[in-house]
Design brief:
There is one protein chain. The protein is of the alpha+beta class. The protein is about 35% helix and about 20% strand. It has 20 helices and 22 strands. It has an 8-stranded mixed sheet with strand order 5-4-3-6-2-1-7-8, covered by helices on one side. The protein has a 6-stranded mixed sheet with strand order 15-14-17-16-19-18, sandwiched between helices. The chain has a 5-stranded mixed sheet with strand order 9-10-13-11-12, with helices on both faces. β14 and β15 form a beta hairpin. It starts with 7 loop residues before the first helix and ends with a helix.
């Protein structure tokens, strides 16, 4: 029995495989079970074409057997088996794919398909085994053959006896090392968990001999250990069932079984697509925010299956970042898989599925907003920040997708409203969508800058999230109405004649405001009579794109950006404090400096900005009190 060499390119690939081309060694079992499933599929396809061959589903299964004493793990199937030539071709040349060739010859007739590339997946066994033996008897053959290899050096093939058609893959499991515990691949509980994780939806039974404690006959309290053969996989995935068969409870149970979250999903989406790309998906919109959702540790992505076999735990490419809260899975036969099932090519099919999923999620959220407002608001309180970040991110590229899903707290009705709801009730004379930014609703309601807008009866959106204003700057306008901060220089509102400073008053106070501007040099761009204040003495407004709230947020970030809004100090010339200012300007320049600094610091505090010199500020207050 002469040893045969692997072909050179196959030998190199095998060495890579032994040194783990896969990210997790446990993958080997998925690969061998998938190959066993392929082998049974091949008999099924033959039976479709051959009237003399009867496919009795009960006769076909996969058996996983661990023998701790001899350190062997055997994966047996009752599939089509391999001839000597097929063993040579499929196992001697890694790049050769028996399943792939078979797939091309026999296109799927009933939605079932051949998964993978036998040679490549098979060699994952060498990650956990020193010695791999394959004993196979092909359908219609009287002979059986044994293929054996201890790794990259080569393999042998010899004739052996085997009673039934099918294949046994016998792995001699490696000894433990300091780094790796190979014993785990001989443990019943570990093997069952790997099968459930990756191969639960293989459509043939995967059987194991399982130990159980049962009461001894004739006794109540005495137990004995018995070994019973059990089917450890579910076989029929929920996503392949008709939606009409399934209840909300079925979907909720699936969510819990897959450990997508400890909450209950707010909504599920069941997709059965049969167009440019064929796939099934079950997606969930969670009820609560995962504890690590807004951290770098959170990993987005959907489980990805190829024909019922798990390929990736988290396929990030299937979800845009702004919908990263979505949980669930996708199963498709159309995916192009390269060297292993977990290394997915970024191909057209994946892009099409991702685009479809994005549209389905958006449509579901819109339905939730329209038909189940309370549920949508619950969702929005958990994940609204992510939608707003999605609007801001990528230079506003996704604003059209997301802007109708946004909600903000409103001064009217004191509740969350959409942009569409705001615009639909705007008075005809209202030019802008007005908003006010602050740390809380309570603080915003007390802002002096809101007075004029509120008195006009115009609705104000309250921005309390640090991302709000940045997102709105990306949208710029909604239904041809621009957004305008109540703190911006020009509100586009004409003040009542009684509140407006007259031209004479502006000229009369010009020198005073110039003097105050000099006192506050470098701190404000201008000092002027306010057209927006009614009861408050002073406020800050901003000129240009950068608002005061944006300055606060940018300065509070870890990198501490040194940015500054162009601030304008607005003085209410109809407030009694203004008379003291005028008197100081005429009689006491030192007192004018004191009053000016006090008013400026008051305006800073109203905005939630830091007073640059708190000690000086308190000293100034003491001077006034003397």
């Amino acid at each position: 029995m002469a040893k045969k060499e692997f072909k050179a390119e196959s030998k190199r690939l095998l060495e890579m495989m032994i040194n783990s081309i896969y990210t997790q060694r446990e993958i080997f079992l998925r690969e061998l079970i998938s190959n066993a499933s392929d082998a049974i599929d091949k008999i099924y396809y033959k039976a479709l074409a051959d009237e003399g061959l009867v496919f009795n589903k009960e006769d076909y299964y996969i058996k996983v057997t661990a023998d701790k004493a001899n350190r062997t793990l055997t994966i047996s199937d009752t599939g089509i088996g391999m001839t000597q030539e097929e063993l040579e071709n499929n196992l001697g040349t890694i790049a050769k794919s028996g399943s792939l060739a078979f797939k091309k010859e026999n296109e799927a007739k009933d939605g079932h398909n051949i998964i993978g590339q036998f040679g490549v997946g098979f060699y994952a066994a060498f990650m956990v085994a020193d010695d791999v033996i394959v004993i196979s008897k092909a359908l219609g053959s009287d002979e059986a053959f044994k293929w054996e290899s201890k790794g990259a050096d080569g393999y042998t093939i010899e004739t052996v006896e085997k009673d039934s058609v099918g294949t046994d893959v016998i792995l001699k499991i490696k000894e433990n090392t300091e780094e790796d515990q190979y014993d785990e691949y001989l443990e019943e509980y570990r093997l069952k968990s790997i099968i459930k994780k990756y191969s639960d939806f293989i459509r043939f039974p995967i059987k194991m001999d399982v130990k159980e404690q049962k009461p001894k006959e004739g006794t109540e309290n005495e137990f004995e250990e018995v070994i019973q053969e059990q089917t450890v996989n579910s076989m029929v995935p929920i996503w392949r069932k008709n939606k009409s068969e399934l209840t909300t409870e079925d979907y909720d149970n699936f969510y819990a079984e897959k450990r997508y979250g400890f909450d209950k999903p707010l909504k599920h989406i069941h997709i059965s697509a049969d167009g440019a790309v064929v796939y099934n998906a079950i997606l969930f919109i969670p009820e609560n925010t995962p504890f690590d959702y807004y951290t770098k540790e959170y990993e987005k992505g959907l489980e990805l299956y190829s024909n019922g076999v798990l390929i990736m735990n988290k396929c990030a490419d299937l979800l845009p970042d702004y919908f990263s809260f979505v949980k669930g899975m996708v199963d498709s036969e159309d995916l192009s898989l390269n060297i292993s099932r977990e290394m997915l090519q970024h191909d057209r099919q994946l892009t099409l599925i991702a685009k479809n999923i994005k549209n389905k999620v958006k449509s579901q959220l819109q339905s939730l907003l329209k038909d189940e407002r309370e549920k949508y608001e619950q969702f929005y309180n958990a994940f609204g920040r992510q939608l707003k970040f999605g609007v801001y991110n990528d230079y506003g590229m996704h604003k059209d997708t997301l802007q109708d899903l946004l909600m903000f707290y409103s001064s009217k009705g004191k509740k969350l409203v959409t942009l569409d709801e705001y615009v639909s009730r705007m008075p005809e004379d209202q030019k802008y969508i007005y908003y006010a930014s602050g740390e809380s609703i309570d603080r915003i309601e007390k802002l002096p800058q809101t007075e004029l807008v509120s008195d006009k009866g115009y609705e104000i959106l309250y921005f309390t999230d640090d991302i709000d204003e940045f997102a709105i700057k990306m949208i710029q306008s909604y239904k041809e109405k621009e957004f305008k901060s109540v703190s911006s220089g020009d509100l586009g509102i004409e003040a009542d004649e009684a509140d407006k400073p007259t031209e004479a008053e502006e000229n009369e106070n010009k020198e005073l405001f110039e003097a105050m501007k000099d006192i506050l040099s470098g701190k404000v761009k201008n000092v002027k009579a306010s057209k927006r204040l009614k009861t408050h003495p002073v406020c800050l407004s901003a000129e240009g794109e950068l608002t005061i709230e944006m300055e606060k947020i940018l300065k509070s970030m870890p990198n501490g950006q040194e940015v500054q809004a162009d601030k304008v100090l607005e003085i209410n010339i109809h407030h009694e404090v203004f008379q003291s200012l005028k008197a100081a300007a005429e009689n006491d320049k030192e007192k004018l400096g004191l009053y000016t600094n006090l008013l400026y610091n008051q305006a800073l505090l109203i905005e939630g900005l830091q007073v640059s010199d708190p000690v000086q500020f308190t000293n100034d207050i003491c001077k006034i009190m003397k």
